[in-house]
Amino acid sequence: MTSVARVLLDSPLPQLDRLFDYAIPEKLVGLARPGVRVKVPLRSAGRMVEGWLVERGEAEPGGRPLSELADVVSPIELLPRSLYDLARKVADRAAGSASDVLRLAVPKRMVRAEKAWLAAEDPDAPIVGSDAAERATALLDAYPGLAEAARAGERVALEAPPFPSVGGAPRGAWADLVAALATQTLAAGRSTLIVVPDHRDQSQVLEALAECVPGDAVLRDDARRSGPERFTSYLRMLRPVPCIVVGNRSTVYAPAHDVGLVLVWDDGDPLLAEPLSPAVHARDAALVRQESEGSALVFAGHTRTTDVERLVHVGWVREIGAARRPSPRVVLSATHEAESRGVRVPSSAFAAAREGLQHGPVLVQVARPGYSPVLVCAECRTPARCTHCAGPLRARRAGAVPDCAWCGRSAPGWSCGKCGGTRFRMASSGSERTADELGRAFPGIRIIIADGDHPVSAVDDRPALVIATRGAEPHAAGGYRAIVLLDGDKMLMAEQLRIGESCLRWWSNAAALAAPGAPVHLVGVIGPVARALATWTHAAYARAELADRAPLLMPPSVRVASVEGTAPAVDAALRDLRQSVPHLDAGAVLGPVPGAEGSVRALVRVDYAHGREVAEQLRASVIAHAVAGRGRGVRGAPRTTLKVRLDVPELDL
Questions:
Q1: Cross-strand partners of 489
Q2: What DSSP designation does 298 have?
């Protein structure tokens, strides 16, 4: 009987997102094993495409003749069945394609690295020293029940310690706690996946792990590595030897051996939201993986997102805190009536900075980089716009000719379109202008700027004023002696559903850099976000936010899907959705509204209990639209598609 290979094609076409049967020729019987990458023919024009051999079977008697496998690209079984199953479940949940998920999970093949892997033997199982195991146990004991929950494979929401690590390189104490969890798991002979937003967090975790476990047991997984390095690390994960993988959002799919723990750090960071199709957040992929494999899952951070709080509320995730709950000393600073309204730094925050500079570095957080990101007319206060593209004008330094932030053109002869004025006024201060102003206020003190154009990872314990944009704050040896959080009122003015969560996360992450007992001054902000920071009650704030959004059907109290395409395609998809899911609420669909290039967009709000039905029906609509549109395009005309995305974080039409 003829052997059959069931192949998942590596194609972005939604109608090809299923397993296709191919006959295995005699010459490839020994090589065509489940998990290898293969080349197969398509019926159209004799094209060859690559794909994954997922499983083998036997041909049905009397069936139609099958095309044969053309070739086996690599003899290595790069796709474990568990990874395929995970990709399939993640894609189905998001109404996407499994091949798109695998494209994120499996790096590009490198022949030289592959040959070296084939010639090498399996490494020895890593051994955790007794001293490292004792240190890990001591750290975990500060969180009653955490070690037991990790061993039992539970889902945990963990509030990380908000202070710097004691001794060693400058890093947060949270990295030591994460390393302790990974050390305990490795000592039990199982692997750990640590998912972090960016390279700064990754470096802290790697430094902490270097003090606990053997170096060859830790693998980096991020896009900053070269192609051969990434592929070599991927091959190492396939070995039947436990390891610790530290990387960015795609690390959640890493096929490490016998995963015992998946840890997601700071899941509220937008860098953990995958921009590529099917746009599945690392948090959601981790939940799917944990349910399939039974490993422990920990969501750790200085703040609590409403997404995780919803899981805690329904009992799906267990909340674990420290036995003794430390918190930074947060002071809500406001400008006193006796001070000028134009004063940016109140006297209390200024005095705290001056006192802190006598003992070490002081951090000042600002909202935006540059000198003056926003200019207005000095006469009527109308925002200054570029005469070429209508983009906002900015000043790169004092006295410089303004230029456009969009097209880069300078505006030497600008005049206001409303009143005709020709003079500018700086309406905001970026990191560079703040550095100039504070440099004059504190003569003789080092000024360090840390932003996207001036990256700084760490500073020493000598007195210095560190002016940093949100998220770019460097670590200080021993912690900052004072922290001043400026521009908080401007940050909160952003028209975003989750801006309160985001601001609380930015400010909390900065406050966690303070030395024990050092003051953290939040300037010019009052209200629930400021109170949550001052009292360090992030979970309570997330609960309140969730309660406010539930009656309004705003995420994450419901799942939100976006449907985008031509008006007839979107209307047809919504009509089919209402027919197949009749229990949708009357107000579940918002739109459609006009979009770019003649498209329209609609949002569908659905309860989590009906999320699978909605995903399946929307996926069916995408496939039907793709099949119906074959061969109907006009030469030179843009191809129209129906795009669907689930779990949209914002109700933004």
A1: none
A2: E
Spatial contact of 225 and 200, defined as CB atoms under 8 Å apart: no
What are 448's strand-pairing partners? 466
Instruction: Give the whole-angstrom CA distance, residue 469 versus residue 627.
Output: 48
Nearest to 288 by CA among 105, 533, 456: 105
Picking from 196, 175, 316, the residue whose alpha carbon sits closest to that of residue 262 is 196
Evaluate whether 74 touches 113 at the Cβ level (below 8 Å): no
pLDDT band at 379 (very low <50, low <70, confident <90, very high): confident
Mean pLDDT of 608-623: 94
Q: Which residue has the higher pLDDT, 428 or 559?
A: 559
| Res. 632: pLDDT tops 60 | no
HSE at residue 101, side-chain half, CA atoms within 13 A, is 27
DSSP 144-165: TTHHHHHHTT-EEEEE---SBP
The secondary element (H helix, E strand) that includes residue 578 is helix 567-580
Q: How far apart are the first and last CA of the chain?
A: 56
At residue 426 the predicted structure's pLDDT band, cuts being 50, 70 and 90, is confident
| DSSP 8-state assignment for residue 329 | E
As a whole number of angstroms, the distance between CA 187 and CA 205 comes to 18
| pLDDT for res 466 | 97
CB neighbour burial string for 17-38, b if at least 16 within 10 angstroms, e if fewer: bebbebebeeebeebbebbbbb
Helix (H, G, I), strand (E, B) or coil at 633: coil
Q: Is the dihedral of CA 95, 96, 98, 101 positive or negative?
A: negative
DSSP 3-state of 140: helix
- State how far the Cα of 71 lies from the Cα of 454, in Å rounded to an integer: 50
Contact (Cβ atoms closer than 8 angstroms) between residue 303 and residue 142 = no
Where are the strands (E) in 418-557, listed by range?
424-426, 446-450, 458-459, 464-469, 475-476, 482-485, 519-523
Q: In the predicted model, is pLDDT for residue 62 greater than 60? A: yes
CA dihedral 129, 135, 136, 142 (to 10 degrees): 160
Read off the tokens for 191: 């692997």
- Sheet containing 643-646, strands listed edge to edge, beginning at the edge strand earlier in sequence: 589-594, 600-606, 559-565, 643-646
**Average confidence (pLDDT) over 596-613:** 91
The stretch 225-233 carries a mean pLDDT of: 92
Q: What single-letter DSSP state applies at residue 395?
A: B
Q: What is the pLDDT of residue 335?
A: 56
- Which position has the token pair 């061993």? 151
What residues does 432 pair with on adjacent strands? none
Nearest to 326 by CA among 302, 345, 310: 302
Say if residues 520 and 534 touch (Cβ distance below 8 Å). no
pTM above 0.90, yes or no: yes
pLDDT (tens digit, 9 = 90+) per residue, 74-109?
A: 999 999 999 999 999 999 999 999 999 999 999 999
Contact (CB, 8 A) for 218 and 207: no
Residue 407 forms beta bridges with which residues? none
Determine the angle formed by the axes of helices 611-628 and 81-93, rounding to 10 degrees: 90
Asked if residues 572 and 642 have their Cβ atoms less than 8 Å apart, the reply is no
161 in Cβ contact with 322 (< 8 Å): yes
Q: Token pair of 224, please?
A: 């900053």
- CA–CA separation, 380 vs 194, rounded Å? 52
